[in-house]
Amino acid sequence: MSEKNRPLADLMRPTTIDEVVGQRALLGENGLIRRMVDSKKLSNLILWGPPGCGKTTIARALANSTDMDFVPMSAVFSGTADIKKAMDAAKMRQNLGMGTLLFIDEIHRFNKTQQDTLLPYLEDGTVVFIGATTENPSFNLNNALLSRCHIGVLQPLDTDDLLVLLGRAEKFLGKKLPLDNDARIHLCQMSDGDARFLLNTCEYLSSAKFKKQLTPDALDSAVQKRAPLSDKTGDEHYNLISAVHKSLRASDTDAALYWVARMMTGGQDARYIFRRLTRFAMEDVGLADPNALPIAIAAWDAYERMGSPEGDIALAELVIYLGTAPKSNRTDKAIHAAYAAARETGSLPPPKNILNAPTKMMKNMGYGAGYIYEPDTESGFSGQNCFPEKMGRRTFYTPVERGFEREIKKRLDYWNTLRKKLSE
Q1: How many CB atoms lie within 10 A of CB 156?
Q2: DSSP string spanning 174-213?
Q3: What is the average per-residue pLDDT within 56-81?
Q4: pLDDT tier at 45 (50, 70, 90 boundaries)?
Q5: Which residues are paired to 103 by β-bridges?
Q6: Which of 43, 114, 171, 189 is buried most, with the most CB atoms less than 10 Å from its CB?
Q7: What count of other Cβ atoms lies within 10 Å of the Cβ of residue 199?
Q8: Quick one: how far is CA 314 from the chain centroid?
């Protein structure tokens, strides 16, 4: 590609680690990558981070810092044959006393067989391997590959980092961009931690013919904002829904609204969010507020009928209701405890007193004998045994002293007192 056609982000790519902006945890004093550079000994490495945070740049700079031959590949376009071809070339360099840094972008795209193909070459030192991924390595890479690599976690660039890049871009271009001070900061915030988006936008702004400096509002009109990071199915998807759940559980309603808004602006299907919120109503609110479940279903139904944007109000109402509701997971614990007991004692028959006896033979066998009809008792409670006779009574549900479960606890305590008296 000619210099004229190369994008600004590529033209400005740092050639050394010291020129890389951000990632202080990895590149700063005592950082994992800084120690590799200082020792001039590279280890196999997986770089995990969002788009535009510097994964490829760091890999290239590492190769430059050790005079290794940089061999880039993309897991999207390469296969097992390409790997073997690259390894054969690396062995030839090795015989000539030259090292090879093999960089594979989107390494999570390789299947198990393709990942396994790398292992012997990493084991014998044919190459130093650096893989880049936007997906959680522990979910998408083989344990065998992970065990041979360090993991470097990269963060989105912050506003200060992006302002540094903005200044570098203007110096490289030899001109000031048509942005007032507020618009400069706004551009960095629009970039959402993505250096590539920032530099691509700088390149566009430098060539466009604006008659005056842009304000933040004018910049919004001139430039399409970077789509929020939410991949709907991958690691970021699960991070965001986890943030929703944990915020609701902490009764931090405003944070829950924010994370739901992040998911919606990232293109998440609202039905998925409603499904998870309905689960929360059952699992984390439970009978501390029995209205939580019907309100979840009603809000979901309203959204299905109205769609967005009107239905977004139903989503917000549900988030606020769940965030401010008393919390209890005792219903969830109760059913899991009951399942465990059922697996343990699954063959025991019910006691005969609570069995129906529709035939004479069943009556003669004692079915229904001793059954007490509760409405006929003075207290409306008989205390009769309903557990298998050989099992004994167990307690699965223990309500908390919160919300409506406080009232349920009073009832259970009352019945337990009656049961004890009736058994004496």
Answers
A1: 18
A2: TS--SB-HHHHHHHHHHHTT-HHHHHHHHHHHHHS--SSP
A3: 88
A4: very high
A5: 72, 130
A6: 114
A7: 25
A8: 24
Chain CA centroid to CA 135, Å: 10
145 with 115: CB under 8 angstroms? yes
Q: CB-based contacts of 357: which residues, under 8 Å, 6+ apart?
A: 363, 367, 368
The 10s digit of each residue's pLDDT in 287-323 is 999 999 999 999 999 999 888 888 999 999 999 999 9
| Residue 348, token pair as written in the block | 């025991």
Per-residue tokens: 133: 């991924």
Nearest Cα neighbor of 173 from 201, 148, 153, 145 is 201
> What is the rounded distance in angstroms from the CA atom of residue 268 to the CA atom of residue 227?
12
Report the C-alpha dihedral over residues 238, 240, 243, 245, rounded to 10 degrees.
Answer: -60
The two three-digit tokens of residue 376, written as one number: 């006929």
Region of 368 (left: φ > 0; alpha: ψ -120 to 50; beta: rest) is left
- Amino acid at site 225: K
Q: In what order do the strands lie in the sheet with 150-153?
A: 69-74, 100-105, 128-133, 45-48, 150-153
Of the candidates 341, 338, 342, 363, the one whose C-alpha atom is nearest the C-alpha of residue 352 is: 363
- DSSP code, position 390: T
Residue 2, C-beta contacts closer than 8 angstroms, at least 6 positions apart: none
Structure-token pair, residue 58: 């760091």
Q: Are 144 and 120 in contact (CB under 8 A)?
A: no
E strand spans, 121-181: 128-133, 150-153
* 157 DSSP assignment: -
CA–CA separation, 335 and 381 (whole Å):
24
- Helices 195-207, 181-191: inter-axial angle, 10-degree rounding: 140
- Specify the residue for token string 């009109």: 221
Neighbouring residues of 144: CB distance < 8 A, sequence distance ≥ 6: 115, 116, 119
Which residues sit opposite 47 in a β-bridge? 132, 152
Contact criterion met (CB below 8 Å) for 287 and 405: yes
Burial class (CB in 10 A: 0-12, 13-18, 19+), 380: exposed
DSSP assigned state of 309: T
pLDDT tens for 147-177 read 999 999 998 888 999 999 999 999 999 999 9
Handedness of CA 324, 330, 331, 335 (dihedral sign): positive
How far is it, in rounded angstroms, from Cα 58 to Cα 27?
A: 9
Contact 212, 176 (CB under 8 A): no
Angle, alpha carbons 135-242-244 (nearest 5°): 130
